[in-house]
Amino acid sequence: METELFIGGKWVPASSGSRFDVLDPATGDTIASVADGTETDAIAAVDAAAAAGPAWAKTPPRVRAEVLRKAFELMTERAADLAKLISLENGKALVDAKGEVTYAAEFFRWFAEEAVRGEGSIATAPSGANKLLVVRQPVGVCVLVTPWNFPAAMATRKIGPALAAGCTVILKPASDTPLTALAMAAILAEAGVPEGVVNVLPSRSSGKVVSAMLHDPRVRKLSFTGSTEVGRILLAQAAENVVNTSMELGGNAPFLVFADADLDAAVDGAMIAKMRNGGEACTAANRFFVETTVADDFSRRLAQRMSALVVGPGTDEKTQVGPLVNEDTVAKVDSLVRSALDAGAEAITGGSRPGGPGFYYPPTVLTGVGPDSAILREEIFGPVAPIVTFTSEDEAIALANDTEYGLVAYVYTGDLSRGLRVSEAIEAGMVGVNRGLVSDPAAPFGGVKQSGIGREGGHEGLLEYLESKYIAVSW
Ligand code: NAP
């Protein structure tokens, strides 16, 4: 297992010599000690990325594509080992970790295919005097900052398009889950990524190292996935050098169930939208709005399914719900549930934190949740489904939009025109209609409002790493 920094194609200790521990969320025990990158290391990583930039930008797109394709193949071959590593450091159930590896590898395959679609445009100026030629060029050195909840997929969703576009990168993974990022670095090196093109910098001093890089004028792009709170700080820092930014931030997804929906399908979809990754997903259904006439039925069926889930260590094959990633996360979930219960909600399954070691929280369904509850305003990031009722389409849309977030929404209805009408009215970057899963490497993923700026995946994901250069030509 790699535990050093990866800079300029070499595994190196932190310049300070210091290291930090990575914990197993199932037990709280230390599983590895990782080099703790400093500001000096961060600048060394920028040096490496800047030095490698011109040659990588000039590397033929077909060659860049083949390196990414090879990385996809290596990830696929080693899927079982990667899944175990993700499960070990993140806590998620192996079944979710395997799903993540497939999803993550697919970004390399997708962007291998996109790398060779080097489009531009040419037009005649309205005056007729000249031509308007537009070419696309790589943005340059990119800083990529990722969260712990999808340690492989959030990295490949950025590295894939950056490399396809001809950019070089420094990845700063979450300090709860650096091991997966380091394993990805090893795979990319083996796939043929030249020295300095990808650098990985685990650090416990995230604020300092990212700030040092954002203040280096050679850095031209920041792609961040994480909380809205940290996103705001980084947007302000990026403004100082006018660094290009892509922001994938928090969510507060509404899950709407209309009375005309197929309730079996709605419960199936709810289980995926809520419980994929144990609820630790930005796309997790955070608020369930159910039409009054079917609310009792839906709630009862959802509670039955939730209470039947097997909770245990993520690395155990039988586990369906692993522990949450750390103590802070489980404490936050517990406090949101307690305050909803204090305000009159009822837990029809789950609802209290078990004793014992590890960061566990049981699958929970809450009914009778008051409209002002904090649990409807904040990201829960755990296996808790609060249910609220509505009586009309307009009310459902108003409830769904009553949040500063706008990442994803889910709509269940038997009436397709209603599904599309509601999709248009909901303020979100993505909507699942009669589906509890929207993520797809071939589709543009991202949010509106305070859920972010820009898109990852799809063709749009590549454009985030390219600048358009306009050349006025007369001939
Ligand atoms: P986070 O606390 O915002 O951390 C995200 C990353 O930023 C980590 O690498 C973290 O490093 C780093 N960081 C923290 N403070 C920083 C600072 N002051 N300056 C620079 N970097 C800093 O988020 P998280 O708890 O890891 O992840 C959960 C959040 O991510 C949720 O809000 C979730 O919705 C969001 N998310 C969004 C998407 C999306 O696509 N929209 C996808 C997945 C997750 P450390 O680990 O060292 O603190």
TrEMBL record:
The active site is at E248. One of its GO terms (biological process) is gamma-aminobutyric acid catabolic process. The keyword Hydrolase does not apply. Residues 11-471 form the Aldehyde dehydrogenase domain. Pfam families: Aldedh. CDD domains: ALDH_F5_SSADH_GabD. GO terms for molecular function: succinate-semialdehyde dehydrogenase (NAD+) activity. InterPro entries: Ald_DH/histidinol_DH, Ald_DH_C, Ald_DH_CS_GLU, Ald_DH_N, Aldehyde_DH_dom, Aldehyde_DH_Superfamily. Keywords: Oxidoreductase. Belongs to the aldehyde dehydrogenase family. This is Succinate semialdehyde dehydrogenase. The lineage of its organism: Bacteria, Bacillati, Actinomycetota, Actinomycetes, Micromonosporales.
